[in-house]
Design a protein that fits this description.
The protein is of the alpha/beta class and 417 residues long. It has 3 domains: 1-120 and 255-326, FAD/NAD(P)-binding domain; 122-254, FAD/NAD(P)-binding domain (3-Layer(bba) Sandwich); 328-417, Immunoglobulins (Immunoglobulin-like). The chain contains 8 helices and 27 strands. It has helices at residues 13-24, 62-74, 139-149, 164-175, 194-201, 261-266, 303-323, 399-403, and strands at 2-9, 30-33, 49-51, 60-61, 79-81, 85-89, 94-99, 103-114, 118-120, 136-138, 156-160, 179-185, 208-210, 212-218, 225-230, 243-246, 249-252, 256-258, 290-292, 330-335, 339-343, 346-348, 355-361, 365-374, 377-387, 393-397, 411-416. The strands form 7 sheets. Strands 1, 2, 5, 6, 7, 8 and 19 form a 7-stranded mixed sheet that branches. The protein has a 5-stranded parallel sheet with strand order 10-17-11-12-13. Strands 22-20-27-24-25 form a 5-stranded mixed sheet, with no helix packed on it. β6 (85-89) and β7 form a beta hairpin. α1 packs parallel to α2, α1 (13-24) runs parallel beside α7 (303-323) and α4 packs parallel to α5 (194-201). The longest helix is centred in the C-terminal third of the chain and has 21 residues, at 303-323. The protein starts with a strand and ends with a strand.
Length: 417
Amino acid sequence: MLNYDLVVVGGGPAGMAAALKAKECGVKDIVILERAETLGGILEQCIHSGFGLTYFKEELSGPEYAARFIDLVEKTDIAVKCDTMVLDIDENNLVTAVNKKDGLLKIQAKAIVLAMGCRERPRGALEISGTRASGIMTAGTAQKYVNLDGYMPGKKVVILGSGDIGLIMARRMTLEGAEVKVVCELMPFSGGLTRNIVQCLNDYNIPLRLSTTVVETHGKDRLEGVTIAQVDEHLQPIESTKEYIECDTLMLSVGLIPENELTKNVGIAIDRVTNGASVDEMRQTDHPGVFACGNVLHVHDLVDFVTMEAQLAGEGAADYILNGAKETVYVPTTTGNGVRYIVPQRVNIKNPNDVKLYFRVGRIFKNAKVVLEIDGNVISSKKKIKLAPGEMEDVVIPASVLAGMTENSTITVRVEE
């Protein structure tokens, strides 16, 4: 049996940032448990640039961004156990893990930060007819093959889904000499950042077909082609628009899912929209002493936001460890017109600081206003030239407003056209 003040599950950017913040706040005994062989998480295979613009004010690659935090961790006495799989967390915050060196581990924690990241939605979740031919894979798997293993998945590529990983792989495959025939997107808007659409598709003349999906794959042993079709307002394929495209590779970029099996096993409440834990403004779940941050909480578009959110969780965990549970009066956040979800899902009005609410919209808005409304009063109204589902937005509740709220107060974020 080992005893630590703080156990951080996951050694990616979220886990490292949370551990470092907790250490900075005065927590002494911290351990990071990472199932991969090294720290860094998914950033190790993201060799493209574009990271760090918000947090470091400079442009870095994924490995460079990760390396900065790995260096900081190594300069502290934070314990790190890589190649370690966490199997269970019980109601008393007892963590069960396993690795080759220590065997089965039991770690009693005063607090836990969940930072397990997310996984890609697989082909099995899609209604695509066809055999299990080779050449069909998620975009993240293809990224690992090309960037880490040095293998080319194919030469003629169709990408389904316009999430950021799919857009980035469209450019990556083109640079490696493959022909990316088309990127198909089921929805009438792209799920990726605008900058990625411009830099990864437009700059290389790769067509993006919106309201279009793959309905069938062809080929028995190796993929030979796919049939695509436009979809109607109910997202159903239109028979007359079917088109065959010859290809040897189909990459799927059809969404990311928070890696929340551990979270669910503890009995923590899950938000039905984000598929992550329901948390307060310090990212504490409804299980005392358990915090969540990063892509395991909700899927972020920028790693910079992951870092800042993880620091909040680390600070919250440190406060819980050093000072115990605080007095809380929670008020739930409510989505208004056009808003798909808000994190945090509840706010402690006893918090003496400003609280930032992160949210995503459900469709594209142009020249609209983001309105924060508390108890029926408009607290802020910001005009936005464009709002898109692929880009996270935020509003701030000032501490002075929190101080005047009661347990019966209401917090609503909405879009006004």
